[in-house]
Predict the 3D structure of the following.
Amino acid sequence: MAQKPFQRNGKGSGFSKLIINLAMAAVCVSVMVMILATAIVKGYQHQVRDKLIGFNAPIQVSHLDLNNSFESLPIERDSIFEHLVARMDGIKFIQSYSTKAGIIKTEEAFEGIVLKGIGSNYNWDFISKHLVQGSLPNLSDSLPVNEVLISSITANRLGFKLEDNVFIYFIQNPPRVRKLKIVGIFDTGMGELDELYAYIDIRQVQKLNNWDISQISGYEIGLNQIEETNNKRNELAMITPYNMGLNSIFERYPALFDWLNLLDLNVVIILLLMVAVAAINMITALLILILERTQMIGLLKAMGAEDRQINKVFLWMASSIILRGLLLGNALGIGFALLQDKFGIIKLDQKAYYLNQVPVEINLLDLLNINFFAFVICLVILVIPVRLVSKVNPVKSIQFT
């Protein structure tokens, strides 16, 4: 009895139907993993980068010396430079800052800390998102305020609570001490930076450094597009005073950004492995379909069908399997990503990864590239098993019908 050709739904029966479903499942899982891997790595890179920028700004201007400590030489505020920078395209803000290293002490313990003095024009967008208790320092008064914003790490280690008074000591000649009131506690997840910095009125730092009101440690310059950092740095170099040095966030933390960029290699490896899994399963499925339908192929050849025409039938069937796998894989991948983004189902150790949950960032261009290249590569590779059609001898195959 002759074997049935294809069923109307494009699937075989029995064992071949199982193989087709497995192949479709392999494509589905591969695409889902590729989408999630790309979304997670992109999300992780951007969130960690944004946290670093939140602490330091994309571009910093400071004294042109080789001193990388927190006791830097002062520069004079330059109103002309500030005005020129503020008028440049793509500049989000320019703000002055001053730093002072000290020791925060209790009766039982002490820790080193860097006081970052900021003014009323400071951009609080980043810190306000990570404020867990209290409020931001009030810097609008005409006189310096004795308020400090510390991290939850520092507060927990030294047993501080909101509204507590803290004593900070400064090793200088003569030694000095400041009594400050905790008005807010923040937690960004950037462990080392969190425990390092505290925010106070810039006028307090200027008094501690014996600077006048026009002297600062430097400027922080924010950008609308972080991707423009190097270009804007080059533009700023043309107007920066001779005694000031420029450096970008990528120059301040080269090792960390190199590590983040290295994650791209992991994504490439995952993509290649997943495409290989999908392609191998599709090849297996197509080989079984061709072998099961050897008699049908022989009959079609005996009736005058060319190898090219028969090849198209199998390739169309393979395309249908791949497309259904892609659609299901996209639905699952995007669905899991949206659930993670909204509910934060999978958590992370914030001390180790700087984030408290797995981040995701879905990019339309990435989705299009994944689907296009997965489909094309699988289809091109399937040309290899389809060539078996030309090996089928009509006479030998029909005689067993």
Q: What stands out?
A: The chain has two domains: 15-51+257-398, 65-241. The longest strand covers residues 91-105.
